[in-house]
Design brief:
By secondary structure, the chain is of the alpha+beta class. It has helices at residues 16-19, 90-114, 116-122, 126-135; strands at residues 2-4, 11-13, 23-26, 33-36. This is Zinc-ribbon domain-containing protein.
């Protein structure tokens, strides 16, 4: 679409898709702003109406249509009875998980104490921790 500024007559070529249903434009030359609407298509001549189609010929070699009967309604089946199963025993599994976790942590602490010389050799700052534990008063 070719657009010209109403103030300075500068012309611009703008694609129709950017204008859409209407848009405010600003001239780059004089900074004047104005509203541009969608391009009006050129009036095309209307096509002549098509002649009516002749009615279809009746075929006599076909048998007469068969009347269809509606389907009978399907019987509604009663829902199956619910069998209530007891909920799973989460209490036993949860208790076993806690006991296993506590045993794992206790085993790691015991391993650290038994192998403290190897731990200090591998990580020297651990010597301060073991020194603090050795100085702790016995209960």
């Amino acid at each position: 679409m070719r657009i010209s500024c109403p103030a300075c007559e500068a012309t611009y070529e703008v694609p129709d898709r950017l204008i859409g249903t209407g848009r405010t434009l600003r001239c780059k030359a004089c900074r004047h702003a104005w509203h541009v609407g969608p391009a009006t298509p050129a009036a095309a001549p209307e096509p002549a109406p098509a002649p009516p189609a002749p009615p279809p010929a009746q075929r006599t070699d076909l048998p007469p249509p068969v009347a269809t009967r509606p389907r009978p309604p399907q019987p509604i089946e009663p829902p199956l009875p619910r069998t209530e199963s007891p909920p799973p025993r989460a209490g036993a599994a949860l208790a076993a998980a806690w006991i296993g976790s506590i045993l794992a942590v206790a085993g790691m602490v015991a391993a650290l104490w038994v192998f403290r010389a190897e731990v200090v050799a591998a990580w020297p700052p651990a010597a301060r921790l073991f020194a603090l534990l050795d100085q702790a008063p016995a209960p």
